[in-house]
Amino acid sequence: MSTPTSPDTDKKTSDGPDWEAWQTSLLKETFTNLQRLTSIPFLPSKMERVRKGVTPREIVYEEDRLKVYHYIGEGEAKFKTPLCFVFALVNRPYIMDLKEGRSIVAHYVKAGFDTYLVDWGTPTRAERFLTTDDYVNGYLLNVVEHLRERTGSDQVNLLGYCMGGTLSTMFTAIHQDLVKNLVLLATGIDFSTREGLINLWTDPRYFDVDKFVDTMGNIPAEFLQTAFLMLKPIANLVEKPINLMENIHRDEFVDDYLHMETWLNDNIPVPGEVYREFAKYLFQQNLLTKNRMPLGRHIVDLRKITCPLLNLMARNDDLVPCSQSEVLNDLVSSTDKEKIIWPAGHIGLAVSGRAQKELWPRAVDWLVQRTD
Amino acid sequence: MNKGLDQVAAFQKLWTDSFANMAGVWSQFSPGSPPSDEMRKMRGGMLKVLSETWDEYMRTPQFMEMMKASLNGALDLKRMARDGMNRVHEQFETPSKEDIDGVLLAIRHVEGRLLDRLEGLDDRVVNLNEKIDKIDQRIAEQGNGIDKRVANLGEKIDEVDQRIAEQGNAIDERVANLGEKIDKVDERIAKQGKAIDERVANLGEKIDKVDQRIANREKAIEGRGQTAKTKAQKPGATTGAKHSQDK
Q1: Spatial CA neighbour of B138 closest among B146, B127, B128, B149
Q2: pTM for the structure as a whole
Q3: What ipTM score was computed for the predicted complex, to two decimals?
Q4: Nearest Cβ partner for B31 among A17, A200, A242
Q5: Is A3 in contact with B35 (Cβ distance < 8 A)?
Q6: What is the pLDDT of residues B92-109, one digit of tens each?
């Protein structure tokens, strides 16, 4: 927006306002505002064009509300060991395959991986008593067994994102023999840190988990969404709409914005008992790092993880700060372990342009070198 | 009461800090730049300080106390409303959400018990599999032992076969030698047989000759006898003495 200035105009500036530059700027701004105004009516049609996932896929496994998608690549998969994406229970998983050029899934499919994604589905009141054990040792174990049977491979590669990363870590600690490589993105492990606001807000002095879960049953999507918005209220509630209005005439910006917002507003409820366990055992008691996290009849012992581990973290993550993730590399017994701290936020780690261009080819290459 | 006052004070501080910091941003305003750029810069600065102030505020115990109080209030209200609805459902004898939750929980307990049983069975199957694996291993080990022994026996049998073959060859050679010797003996016997035959033939001839001579002598004797008879019929003949001398 700034106007190029000559030494002559610089002189004028030092004396007082450069009225010519002011006029030019105002004219430009008025013209751009007209462009912005004329773009507003097209916004709803652009919203309708937003797709939830871009890579061709098919459903290969279903159990209750869970679905497993198989992504169809061009030609035969190069690697026998399948790759399974595990996402969080609080959002829909299509952030992994958001849009053309912003898809982690596409990177792996293109590299020749037989790629799958677990969609946990939207829990209803009937699922309110499902526990973390049901998800890890029930659904996820069944999915892995199905993939082993389907592909003829003894093991699978797991890629977990956010809460899905925590679930994948627990799964690997209990069923290490079934996991060949573990890739984690922005995964919460050490909840004793007080860097993140969520960790502070779930402090037992201020938050009665039992009362909350007993009253609410499943944790409503709106509650979770409000909590996420409140992490950065000014950025989310003020800056973001202003940014949209400023860039509403730029198609690419609007497309990215709408895709992101569609996903961010597509929260799903979390089964009550899972929320209770996460809040109590992880956020309040931090049992995972103490190797005392109960999971059904199992106790999660991170020292039992021996497979290669790639731990990806976002430096500006306000939901899962790096300090909450990077400790994992010291807690596992793996000898082949690597961590990458990327300059991005919680979502930017997956979909930002720079991460797509630089981080993901590197992460794909890491897995290529360790998969048969 | 003190908590309430603290919360009010913290909230007040939030706003005074926000406004003070925002005012500080305006001090960086430079009228020389185009107004749209300056406005953007000011807006960015204000939002940044607001964001920082709010982040700081949301970390205070007062904010969290306030959140706790409002959340608990909302939960209590929800509970009261639900209790009221439960009573209504009870009066109308229709199932409430709580009843449905009770049924779900019962199903869940049954499921839990079944899963426990299944897991117990799984464990037992795993143990059995381990035992079977061990037995398999032992069988395989024993099989390997037997295989080795069989292999050794095979080798020994081969050695014996070889020795038998060698001895057979030696016997064959000896038999062949004996055959030759027998042939030679046969030849010698045949030769001796022929020689004997020849001798016998010679002897036969000699005997024949002797027989002939005897026959001739007998004929001669017979002839002499006839003559003697004829003479006897004539007087003074001494026939007996003459006969013994001829013999």
Answers
A1: B146
A2: 0.76
A3: 0.80
A4: A17
A5: no
A6: 889 888 888 888 888 888
